[in-house]
Amino acid sequence: DTKKLTRFILMGLFVLSIFLASCVVITYRLYQEMDEVNSSVRTSVKGVAYTDNRIWDTAEYTIPMQAINSFFVMTNIIKTENQREQTCPEYPFANAICSSDESCEKGSADIHSNGIQTGRCVNYNATVKTCEVRAWCPVTSMEKPPEPAVLRSSEDFTVLIKNNIHFPKFNYTVLNFPQNLNTSCTYNKITSPHCPIFRLGDILQEAKQNFSEMAVKGGIIAIEINWDCNLDSWFYDCSPKYGFHRLDDQKIKPGFYIRYAKYYKVHGKEQRTLFKVYGIRFDVLVFGTGGKFNGVELIKNLGSMISYFGLIASAIEIALCVANYSSCCKSPFYKIYNRKKYETVLNPRQVLYVSYVDEPHVTLIKKPLKTSLQHAQGSIVESNENDDNEESKPMHTSESNENDDNEEYELGQPLRQGPSSPDCQKWCCCGKCQPTQKYHEQLCCRRKKGQCITTSHWFQQLVLSSHTLKKSLLYREPFLDLKDGNINNQLRHLAYKQYILWRFGSFDLEDRAVVPSCCRWKIRDTYPKAVDNYTGFKME
Description:
Helix content: 25-40%
CATH superfamily of the largest domain: atp-gated p2x4 ion channel domain
Oligomer: single chain
Function: Receptor for ATP that acts as a ligand-gated ion channel.
Number of helices: 13
CATH class of the largest domain: Mainly Beta
Structural class: alpha+beta
Subcellular location: Cell membrane; Membrane
Largest sheet: 9 strands, mixed
GO biological process, one term: membrane depolarization
CATH topology of the largest domain: atp-gated p2x4 ion channel fold
Number of strands: 18
Number of domains: 3
Membrane topology: Multi-pass membrane protein
């Protein structure tokens, strides 16, 4: 079940990664080579207004701007007529008010002044004196612009915006005009989103501004044209999207105005009319990109994304941790996940491996022991089912079966009688274990009460059979003398290894695998030492 769960999680991560990669590639068009737009803009304002008993047409209310891709529409005006170059009182602002000639410095000019001071203090009116200046007189007053605005009706004027764009990489050019342009259309975000003719009032409404209020002091409005073009024939899309917002600060000196003058001569003397014109400057801002499919770009971006997929596993792990600790108890799924993710590396000298005949797995037990090895708590490390593992099959040949009848004779009689059931140790469950005071030697072949493994046919054939053990020794050392006096030692050691291979499935655990007391003494009784001085735990 845990393996299936692990496979399911890995498959889920793989599918999720592919899905996210596909979404990112398609959404952000990472399969395309991109190019920045080059642009040119032309504008044409139309409209006529009648106010103050005069006609205002395009030539009067549109003033050429030096800024690129901008146009200006006049909405309010202050006129100072019949100005001539002469001396006159300055407009009464703080630094121009005086009480005597000593307050006025000849030849000086304040930053707010309209001319050069002559050094005289003269009457501006019956109550106020100001420094006299040489300037275009009468000087312009600093009064506020008229309310309501003079050309408030310019709200209904229209502007045609012609925008040509070009993508140099792809040699592609397009105009912001629809193929079937209706020249009587007016831009509407919903009904006519591609119409290039805009009503000024609608522009300010889209920018969330009140035209009548803004017309008094003027301001700056941005008309944004965004080109996000997909130039692939199967997904072609290249049409502009318009946006509008106000650019000038509405808290610190809001508004926008310019000054200009019209000059003429009267009786040979030059005069002028000064205009302080308030209005709205429209800045047309064009930006965007165009893309076409490119295999190199696709491979490069996919390679970059793969490096970020590792974050998915981290995100899932964080989610599992949060879900686990937010619940009142440990999640079983989280326990399984944590056990599969982390592997505890222990010092080989600090662990023991045991196997019980009535349990299908090998158990790992950590040292030091506080009770008998039989009763010590451990953890499952692997299955003890080795039927499919050819390498772990015990050594057993057909010839050994032919000698089954003679085996009892070859095994001989045990050196000592096993303990009887009444005198059996508390930790022994089979009744065949030998008493010992050392915790690490107190191990039975069974976890629960039952028949001892040493009484089984397979223990006799796979572990104790001298015929099988001798053939194994000869397989390793063909010229071994089986009549040697030390042959019992070699047979005993090989029997221990046979037991470990049979019950643990591998020789890799030989150093830490513990042979139960009953089995250990059965092997020792069958193949005894010349001198009975066994150390107990060691396989001697």
